[in-house]
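User: Hey, my collaborator sent me this sequence without any context and asked if I could get a structure. I don't really work with proteins. Can you help?
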Amino acid sequence: MAFLLRGKRMNYIIINKDNIDTEHICCAMSNKKSLQKKEWLKERFDEGLVFYRSEERGKCFIEYIPGQYAWIPITSNDYMYINCLWVSGSMKGHGYSSELLNYCIEDARQKGYKGVCILSSKGRKKEFLSDYKYLTHKGFKIADESDNGVVLMYLPLSEGNPPQFKEWAKHPHINEQGFVLYYTDQCPFTDYWVSRIEEVAKEYSIPLKTIHITTREQAQNLPTPVSTYALFKDGEFLTQGILNEKKFLKYAGIDMQ
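Assistant: No problem. I've predicted the 3D structure and written it out in structure-token form, which is a compact way to encode the shape of the chain:
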């Protein structure tokens, strides 16, 4: 049975523990790719995670959680944190993202939070981060910024201190040589692509260490503002964009024909 949220522009299915095994999640249409993500979601629902997706099939959804349970290193107990707001393809241009965002804002207000927050980037849009221009248009402000250009945006709903990055996340750096990749199951594509770059790294004798983050405590203490996927090389942050084999080899200086 589908739990519906009836909007003016679209009806949305509320994904929860009762229907997650039978409903698809928009960020991964393939059941095989979504298994790890669904297991991750199941453990978050009791923490207050909310997941709405469009009733129509397509990439149109929002996922948010109380800030104290967010899997990123921020101080945000008074804020609702948006894990992901994604509307793409044929779903774009119909006002669905605004409708989903408004549901989150009103939910945060009713639950007594001082605002909502989300990760973005100024200038050129970074993969898997929300659009800066869209957020500023909606009234979001910059709460904090890291050395690698990731910004923490927030929309205040009442008076209070804005959320902040934890100090170690503002200056992404590790004391390890070679490639080091941190990743979680929050995105359904990490497990799929991490295994592939592990294989190609082994094939080309590229030093790669992958670290699977499996607890909130680990995620909240990472040396990067983005925990879902964070690749370092010789101690320096490279990207939060999930790489295929060809893109990874390019970072390693190998041209894969």
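In plain terms: The first strand starts at residue 4 and ends at 6. You can pass these tokens on to your collaborator as they are.
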